[in-house]
Design brief:
The chain is an all-alpha fold. It has one domain. Helix content is about 70%, strand content about 0%. A two-stranded antiparallel sheet has the order 1-2. A hairpin with a 2-residue loop joins strand 1 and strand 2. Helix 1 runs parallel beside helix 7. The radius of gyration is 18 Å and the shape is flat. The two termini are about 30 Å apart.
């Protein structure tokens, strides 16, 4: 498998959020602000990459019958370390992420990559896959968070862009997360179908 293909699959062709619709719980809950999305995204990139490396190294010694509990144990150890570091050095982010940070342990994106890729590929490819999927996850979260924060508060990272009179409170509430994701998926679907029609007409 080419390294470029792994990157393309992880970042956009098989984007965990926008294509495979995995990890919806943290995606919809944490994307109220760009800062939250950045913090969660970086955490997922680090944990996903390290878990892929660890599982790839141990893939031949983990019995098939207990592989899922073993994967969860490895991921839990990594999440605990990251959680403690964030708590110590970025306490405001720790509070913002709340329960969704420790819930990375059972994040279906990380478990899916462990089962379908890291357990079957070498360390180099598994490392690249972890980075690529993590970047794809982060970019999707940033896209959702950008529109939610901008339309909900009129500001981005504390800088006011839109007047307060245009703020739509619903955008920073749970319904706003579903609305934003739905619109993004709708636009993507429209352009995807349009591209298919153009190819068929050629």
């Amino acid at each position: 498998m080419k390294i470029s293909d792994i990157f393309k699959d992880g970042i956009y062709r098989k984007n965990a959020i926008l294509i495979m619709l995995l990890g919806m719980c943290p995606t919809l809950a944490v994307t109220t602000t760009l800062s939250n999305a950045i913090g969660m995204g970086i955490s997922v990139i680090v944990i996903l990459t390290l878990s892929n490396i660890s599982i790839s190294i141990m893939r031949k010694v983990i019995p098939a019958a207990v592989r899922i509990p073993a994967y969860i144990g490895i991921i839990a150890a990594l999440v605990t370390i990251i959680e403690m570091l964030i708590h110590a050095y970025v306490p405001t982010l720790y509070v913002s992420l709340g329960i969704y940070l420790p819930l990375i342990v059972v994040n279906c994106i990380i478990l899916e990559r462990a089962e379908s890729f890291a357990s079957k590929n070498n360390i180099l490819h598994s490392t690249i896959d972890g980075i690529a999927v993590g970047i794809g996850f982060t970019l999707a979260m940033l896209l959702i968070a950008f529109f939610r924060e901008l339309l909900g508060t009129g500001a981005i990272l504390g800088f006011t862009i839109l007047p307060a009179s245009t703020n739509m409170l619903i955008m920073i509430l749970p319904p706003g997360a579903f609305l934003t994701l739905g619109i993004i998926l709708g636009v993507m679907g429209h352009y995807s179908n349009k591209k298919k029609e153009e190819l068929e007409n050629e």
